[in-house]
Amino acid sequence: MTTDPVICSAKGCREPAAFRLIWNNPKLHTPDREKVWAACAQHRDQLSDHLSVRGFLRRVDPLEQPR
């Protein structure tokens, strides 16, 4: 069984993701709720910065692509 790769969440990007950006908007979500954006190496910093400036970013984890 083949699974399509996870694609980067950056607008217009179609590259396979290499990272999971785990975030939470404390004004909308309970503390245990974790949302995820996928990021390729090129967009990791840009997406992380976007979430960090808002105080949403919790952590960045490597993404293991499905086989």
Q: Please count the helical segments.
A: 1
Number of beta strands: 3
Radius of gyration: 12 Å
Overall residue-averaged pLDDT value: 93
Percent strand equals 15-25%
Major sheet: 3 strands, antiparallel
Strand order within the widest sheet?
2-1-3
Can you write the helix and strand succession as a string? EEHE
Enumerate the spans where pLDDT stays under 50 for 5 or more consecutive residues: none
Q: How many structural domains are formed by the residues?
A: 1
Overall geometry: globular
Which structural category fits the helices and strands? Answer: alpha+beta
User: Termini, distance in Å?
Assistant: 8 Å
Q: Helical residue percent?
A: 10-25%
Blueprint of the fold:
Elements (H helix, E strand, L loop, with lengths): L18 E5 L11 E5 L4 H10 L3 E6 L5
Tags for this entry?
67 residues; alpha+beta; 15% helix; 24% strand; globular
Can you describe what's shown?
The structure is a single chain. The chain has 67 residues and is of the alpha+beta class. The chain has one helix at 44-53, and strands at residues 19-23, 35-39, 57-62. The chain has a three-stranded antiparallel beta sheet, covered by helices on one side. It starts with 18 loop residues before the first strand and ends in a 5-residue tail after the last strand. The mean pLDDT is 93.
